[in-house]
């Protein structure tokens, strides 16, 4: 079961509006959540450079897909931003 705070984020109007600008008016959510918490200076959760398409099935290529990184605190070089 997904926590209600993540459900609210998933259905947040601002997020959905941004996705509509990228994908068009029909936005659907993937049933699999990939939430990765990352604490500052923790090597245990570092994710190396990758392309999400390596984790998708061939049927995925028939759809426009967007992925988002949403930090829950200020993103600085000291606490681990995206490169």
Automatic annotation (TrEMBL):
Superkingdom is Eukaryota
Query: Do you know which Gene3D superfamilies this protein is assigned to?
Result: q2cbj1_9rhob like domain
Annotated InterPro entries: Phytyl_CoA_dOase-like
- Gene Ontology MF: a single term: dioxygenase activity
Q: Which organism is it from?
A: Elysia marginata
Q: Which UniProt keywords apply?
A: Dioxygenase, Oxidoreductase
Protein name per the record: Phytanoyl-CoA dioxygenase 1-like
Pfam families named in the record: PhyH
- Cofactor requirements of the protein: Fe cation
């Amino acid at each position: 079961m997904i926590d209600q705070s993540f459900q609210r984020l998933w259905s947040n109007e601002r997020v959905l509006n941004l996705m509509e600008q990228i994908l068009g008016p029909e936005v659907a959510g993937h049933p699999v959540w990939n939430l990765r918490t990352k604490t500052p200076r923790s090597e245990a959760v570092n994710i190396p450079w990758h392309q999400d398409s390596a984790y998708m099935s061939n049927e995925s290529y028939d759809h426009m897909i967007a992925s988002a990184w949403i930090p829950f605190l200020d993103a600085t070089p000291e606490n681990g931003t995206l490169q």
